[in-house]
Amino acid sequence: RVTSIRAIDKHSVHQICSGQVVLTLATAVKELVENSVDAGATSIDVKLKECGVELVEVSDNGKGVEEANFEGLTLKHHTSKIRDFSDLIHVETFGFRGEALSSLCALSDLSVVTCHESSQVGTKLVFDHKGHLVQKSPHPRQQGTTVSLQQLFSTLPVRHKEFQRNIKKEYAKMLHILQSYCIISVGVRITCSNQNGQGKRTTVLCTSGSQSMRENIGAIFGPKQLQTLLPFQQASPIESVLEDYGLKDTELPTQLFAITGFVSRGDHGVGRSATDRQFFFINSRPCDPVKVTKLVNEVYHMYNRHQYPFVALSITVASDCVDVNVTPDKRQIFLQEEKLLLAILKTSLINMYEAGVNKISLNYTPKHITTGDDVETVLQSPKSSVNLAGLKAAFSSQHSSSSFRKAGVSDAASSGPKQKTLQSFFKGSGKPPVSNTTVKSPLKPTRDLTKSSTVGKSVLEGFRYGRTSCSTDMSSGDSITPTPDNEDGLHVNSPESEAERPDVKNEDFEEMSEENHTIMESPKPKICDSTGDCTVIPDAKRYKTTSSNCSEGYSTSSSATVDAPVCLQRKTLPLQFCLQELAGTLRRLKDQQRKAGEELKYRRFRAKINPGENQNAEDELKKEISKDMFKDMVIIGQFNLGFIITKLNSDIFMIDQHATDEKYNFEMLQQHTVLQGQKLIAPQKLHLTAVSENVLMENIEIFRKNGFEFLIDEDAQVMERVKLVSLPTSKNWTFGPADIEELIFMLSDSPGIMCRPSRVRQMFASRACRKSVMIGTALNVSEMKKLVVHMGEIEQPWNCPHGRPTMRHLANLDVISQD
């Protein structure tokens, strides 16, 4: 229906735009705190009720609002920061567009109590959802402003319901944003507290108004965090780094960027398990520079690949080189000469970490270090330092190899034992001969290693390990370990070496030249008695078979004799035939083909069995296979003593028996295992931040299931309220405060959801692997059916805990029949 184009009414426009400016609790608090800092406040107090659902209140001791500005305080695009667009280039305040208070009016019940420095008494202002002042009354107050938001997002029913349901997550994100303002706002005391129900108000964040960024970090995260930090030392970018970014030294502006702040040391154990403490500021504005964040983490992983750094970097640049008017929350910022900034950061970080990496502290005094024929005295006193560059030069690869040769050790021997490949069992170029010869082991069931070599190799390569492989001693059977993507060949691990197998010899295989047909010697004839014992005929000749064509009814032998034609007695039987039945059969076949064509409107599975296609294959399986389908799968059989072939309607699937059983066992351990704790002799202080303490106390039951017990004193000071009294232990696995911090980080994002620290997951993965069905184990139909049905009982059946795929689609029978 064609309608005329008309303007949207102002109220609707106001609601639409306001919902895009303030998206979350974090955005609302951020806008109010920024207004307080812009007003010159040295003390800011954030108070919440029910984590912000009922009330958000921000008080400051800033300049306050003059009476002449009461009316325009919450009107759209009314601001004292700029007058026209050109002023954006030189803006030095957090806010400048006049949108925050106006949007908050549209989304909540907003009231303001303010007292300007020129006023004798304060004033309470009440505004409607359109931003219009509806009530004004005297109210006692010291100089400054208090803004109160009640029932945030109540004017947007869907968002309000979502806000209430996810309030724990919203609250945690708000505190993370507030931490960034606490770090960068030197000389400003910021506190944040929360009250649930009629309970006691709890302080969750507090700084002391220090003039130092370092002291602010210590106030928020504790002195323990400060001990792991390095002050950032800016350095000019080196030529090789400039080349990486396509920059030329002569064309670059000098002293454009000034960078200060702190990053974690590169030592293992002092970093963090997640990126939860990374803060970046451009001209004192908290922001999310994606490329800068990625670069800092990449450089850090060069020295500590298993952790992430704490980062607090303040970047200062000329205001006309920055565009902050990109997104409503101003977290995305455009920079001129961004590549130069990255080059400075990369060079500076590498210099800082190299200075620490090249020294090793030692507590002993070895007298000499021998390098080949030379003996050098390197260490003379305890706790001295060894320069790694000197050690690398002394033990260079060239020197080491020459020393090995002098000692009579060949390069091959010095490289250590290598895993034997399947091709090493064959002579010549390593190509396996075409044969059904079975390699037997006296201690293992017979396994056909060469049969279906082409199909077996391609399928097994598709089930290669992911980035982390399952490294468990598969003592119950042979372990077939797929190779990484950059290696060729299928490796076969067996408890027995080649030398321990007297019946496996390279001479058992013979390879002819390409011009001749492949000739395989057949085993000597045997005579077997009724007991099953066989005797080899000593004088029996070895017959050779070739692929040359023979006339029908004749056979060839080594004596070149020609057999006489064979005469067979043939029996004649009458065949009943009906043309009408044949026509009916043809019609039925055509109907079946037509129905199959209607059902198969698209190919559901297109991904190949290839490591590069793993993600596509998983996406297809998630889309097409539901949990209740696994119990309907028909077992066809077992392939290569490692894979279950199943059929669902017209689709054929292959399931890795070890990987799928491992994933089922892993998820059962995850869900039902309660780790036992070991009591500590004395309670241990954790020095958690106020935010982390609250997350821990609200999810105490999840910590108990993971084996952690705490002594909680809610009346104690912040960072002293929680003490550790019991740690989980399990055989050789031990856990500590680092696992607690990791759990806190996960629960901040998903409060109330049962989760495990990564090291607990590793322990469960190891146990699940050991108790699962191994590759090389023969299974009957009921055992295979049990494994397949289990796949429908777990949350994520597509990968084992180590990343190996459990299931892949092989073929669709309808497609094959149509072709």
Automatic annotation (TrEMBL):
Compositionally biased spans, kind Basic and acidic residues: 498-507
Pfam family name, one: HATPase_c_3
Superkingdom per UniProt: Eukaryota
GO terms for MF: ATP binding; ATP hydrolysis activity; ATP-dependent DNA damage sensor activity; endonuclease activity; mismatched DNA binding
SUPFAM superfamilies, per the entry: ATPase domain of HSP90 chaperone/DNA topoisomerase II/histidine kinase (SSF55874), DNA mismatch repair protein MutL (SSF118116), Ribosomal protein S5 domain 2-like (SSF54211)
Organism: Sphaeramia orbicularis (orbiculate cardinalfish)
Descriptive protein name: Mismatch repair endonuclease PMS2
InterPro entries: DNA_mismatch_repair_CS (IPR014762), DNA_mismatch_S5_2-like (IPR013507), HATPase_C_sf (IPR036890), MutL/Mlh/PMS (IPR002099), MutL/Mlh/Pms-like (IPR038973), MutL_C (IPR014790), MutL_C_dimsub (IPR042120), MutL_C_regsub (IPR042121)
GO BP term, pick one: mismatch repair
Bias (Polar residues) ranges: 412-426, 468-484
Membrane spanning residue stretches: none
Gene: pms2
Subcellular localization, as worded in the UniProt entry: Nucleus
DNA mismatch repair protein S5 domain mapped to chain residues: 217-354
SMART domains associated with the record: DNA_mis_repair, MutL_C
Keyword terms: ATP-binding, DNA damage, Endonuclease, Hydrolase, Nuclease, Nucleotide-binding, Nucleus
Region (Disordered): 407-452, 468-508
